[in-house]
Amino acid sequence: MDAPAMPMELLFEGRFADYLREAALGDAPCIFVHVPKTAGTSLRAELAQRLRPDMNIEVDYTDTTRLFRDKMDDAVAAFLAGPAAVVRFASGHVMGRHVAQMRAAMPEARFITFLRDPVERVVSDYLHQRSPRHPGHERFRETFPALEDYAAFRPEANKAAQHLISPAVYAARDPEECVEYMMRTYAFIGVQEMYPISFRTLTALAGEPAWPSLRENVGTGDAADREVPPELATRIRAANPLDAALYDATFPRWRKIRDALSLHLA
Question: Phi, psi (5° rounding) for residue 33?
Fold first, then answer.
């Protein structure tokens, strides 16, 4: 007997009614795994209006005495110890290990996320962390004076996969296994480059199909800042093979169904 299709597979096969039924958010908690610089701030604001009560799982970025990972570990532990029992929507820059913890503690929860072209995401992340809007930007500028320096910093590589994939799967560095895990784990995977139709699909899952109206925390810098020489773009993709695999398994399939899905959701 064939294994049942995963929710996103139903969507990409054009089985829209089946997908909307199988992946419907309903009353179960919805957990938005927010990969940095993937239009998540705007998305979170609009979903929070529709799915209440809501909570943002966040840390104090101005506290430089502790590592981000330790602060987020504490934030997730506090969430699971209390608010997880009552919220309908939660979001945050949680990591793959936190997703595994929440799946075990909240088996009924629906997990959603957004992806972005790996090169565009790295550039946007770099510009954001250099901006005065970001705590610690002075030190970041000293550490990474050029995009090339940041792109070569291995701990920041495959950031989307670090946020979305369980540590056991991530450790193997197998792109196909990471893609399979993502498709199996997330009820919805949008792409920033197709934000309007992704947003409408997600809000349809919440029972209120709508088009986006907010643009918050948009990227800093002008167009010249975002121009990446082809050779550097190639290097960035090569340095982020897991992120590239996740995106390449998702974006072309969104592009293929966009027109038919738009008609279905009209």
Answer: -85, 105
- Domain topology for 7-117+160-218+241-264: Rossmann fold (3.40.50)
Who contacts 7 (Cβ-Cβ below 8 Å, separation ≥6)?
19, 22, 23, 187, 188
Q: Which tens digits make up the pLDDT trace of 212-231?
A: 986 555 444 444 467 899 99
Strands (E), the chain: 30-33, 54-56, 89-92, 110-115, 188-191
Q: Quickly count: other Cβ atoms within 10 Å of residue 200's Cβ.
A: 19
Residue ranges per structural domain of the chain: 7-117+160-218+241-264
For the purposes of burial, counting CB atoms within 10 Å of the CB of 161, is it exposed (0-12), middle (13-18) or buried (19 or more)? buried
Q: How far apart are CA 56 and CA 74, in angstroms?
A: 14
Inter-residue contact 228 to 122 (CB < 8 Å): no
Please name the residues in contact with 18: beta carbons below 8 A apart, sequence gap of 6 or more.
10
Q: How far apart are CA 150 and CA 160, in angstroms?
A: 16
Q: Nearest-CA neighbor of 195 among 116, 126, 91, 92?
A: 116
pLDDT at 215: 59
Q: From residue 143, how far is each of 63, 108, 129, 153, 248 by CA, in Å?
A: 19, 42, 11, 10, 31
Tokens of 64: 């430089």
Rounded to two decimals, the pTM is 0.92
Q: Give the CB-side neighbour count of residue 183, counting CA atoms within 13 A.
A: 22
Query: What single DSSP character describes residue 157?
Result: T
Find the Cα–Cα–Cα–Cα dihedral 114, 116, 118, 124, rounded to 10°.
Answer: -110
